[in-house]
Amino acid sequence: MSSPSAARSRTGWTRWRQICQFSVALLYLAIPLVNRAGHHQVSGTLAALKIGPIELVEPAGALSAMLAGRHIAASLLIGIAPLVLLALIAGPVFCSWVCPWGLASELIDKARHRGSKYGWGANSWIAVRKLRAGSILLGFAISAVFALPLIALISPPRLLAALPIEAIALKMLPPTGVLLLALLAFELLGPRRVWCRALCPVGALTNFIRSPFTVRVAADPARCLCPSTALCYLQCHWGIDPRLAGRFDGCTNCMRCIEVCPSGAVEVTFALKANRQTRDRDRRQL
Amino acid sequence: MNGGVLGWLRNLLAPPPLRPPGAKTESEFSALCIRCDRCLEVCPYGTLRPAGFGHGASVGTPLMIPAKMPCYLCMLCPPVCPTGALERNMDKRAVRIGIARVNTEACYAHMGVLCRTCIDQCPFPYEAIGQDSELHPVVTDKCVGCGICEKTCPAPEVAIRVEPRKERL
Predict the structure, then answer these.
(1) Tens-digit pLDDT profile for residues A136-154
(2) Strand order in the sheet with A42-45
C-alpha cells in the first residue's frame, strides 16, 4: 500500500491538465479580440501562432502545406521545430493538455456516458492502430496529389481556434462552424472519441514523433495488483491500457492512469529501460 | 509548379476570388495557405473574410470583396503569413490583387458628368488610374487592385470593378 503522501502526490494531474486546457481555450478566444483592438503582438490560431517574432506552426498542417506546395519552406521548418522538440521531450501532450477540441471531445464523451457503465471494449487501442496510420497517410497523399493542404483544412484544433476570428469577419456562422458541427455529430454518434484517438491527423503525427527518451507512463508489473481489466484502462480518456499498450498506441500523457491506479504501479518515466521493455512487448504482440 | 488536378478543375469551373495583397499565383496560394486565419485577424478594416463552401476546397482561405470592403494597403497581413502564401515583404506598388475595369456604359464620366471619384480615391492617382483627353478614367497596368474605386464609385450601377489578374491564375 502506498502512503497517504504518495497518494496525494499522484493526484492533481487532471486538475492541472484541465487548468491548462481551459487557459488555452480562453487564450484563443482572447487573441482575436485583442487583435481587433489593434494590438498585433500575438496573432494566429492553433494552426500557426505568432508571439512577437516567434513563429509556432502546427507540424501536420505545415507538412501538408509543404507537400501540397511541393516546396520545403525554411520558415515552416523553423516554425514547427519548437513543437517537434516538445513532442520529442514530453510526448503528444498537445492532444490532452492543449487542444481545445480534445477538451470538447473529453467533455462530450463524459456527458455521453453519464449514467452508463464508463469503460472501453476489449483492446480498443489495438483496434485504432491501422486507422491512425491510414488517416495520416491518406491525409498526406491527398495533400500531395490534389495540391491541397487537407490536414490544415480539417484539423479540429485549427477549426475551433479559428471560429471566433471567422465569426467576427463574417458576422455570421462561418464555414469553420459548419465543419465543426459535422465533427460534433461524429463525436456524438460515432465510437468513443474515435476522431481524437484515430482519425485526427494532427494527433496521429504528434503520436509518431517520439524518441526513446520521450516522457511516458509505464506500469510496474511487480506492483500491479489488478485483474486483467483495471481502473487505469477503464478510466483512460484514450482507451489505452498502460500495462499493455505499445509506444505508438496513442497515449497522450494525460496522466489519468497514474491518478486512478490504486497501488501506485503506474508512473511517469522517461527512461530508456521502460521503452526497451515496451519495444520487446510490441515485438511479442506482433 | 502546377496546381495539381484540383487547381486545374477549379480554374475550369470558376475564376478565383481576389486574394490578400502579396498572394502568390492561385494554385500556389491554395496549396500553401494553411487557413491559420492570421491575416483575417490582423486586418484592421475587416476586408479579409474566409471563403465559403461555394469555393470548394478553398473553403476557409482568405479573400476580399471590394464592394463590401476594399483593401487600404496597410500591409499588415503579408508579414504574418507563416507559409509564404503571401509574399512577406511587399511594396505597396508591387501589390497585384487584381485590376480595375471601367464599365463605360455605367460610368458618369462617360455620360458627360465631371466625375473623377475613382481617381481622387485611388491610392496612386495618375499612376494606376488616369484620365484621357475626354476626361474618362483610364486604368493602367500599375493598378494594384485594392478596390477603393469600386467601393466609392457613386454611379448607381458600380462602373468600376476589380477583376482577378490573368497572371495570377
Answers:
(1) 999 999 999 988 999 999 9
(2) A42-45, A48-51, A54-57
Contact B67, B158 (CB under 8 A): yes
CB-based contact, B106 to chain A, within 8 Å: no
List residues bridging with A54 in a β-sheet.
Answer: A51
Model pTM score: 0.86
User: Looking at chain A, which residue has its C-alpha nearest residue B57?
Assistant: A148
Report the C-alpha gap between A113 and A194 in whole angstroms. Answer: 14
* Element containing residue B161 per DSSP (H, E): strand B160-163
Residue A30's nearest CA partner among A57, A49, A14, A54 is A49
ipTM of the prediction: 0.84
End-to-end CA distance of chain B: 12
| DSSP reduced 3-state for B137 | strand
The domains found in chain B, sorted by start residue, are: 4-92 (3.30.70), 96-168 (3.30.70.20)
What cell was used for A35?
A: 487583435
Question: What one-character DSSP code corresponds to residue B93?
Answer: G
The ranges assigned to domains in chain A are 4-212
Name the amino acid, one letter, at A107: L
CB contact under 8 A, A175 and B52: yes
DSSP structure class, residue A70: T
CA distance A122 to A144: 36
Residue A48, SS3?
Answer: strand
CB nearest to B4's CB, from A58, A76, A146: A146
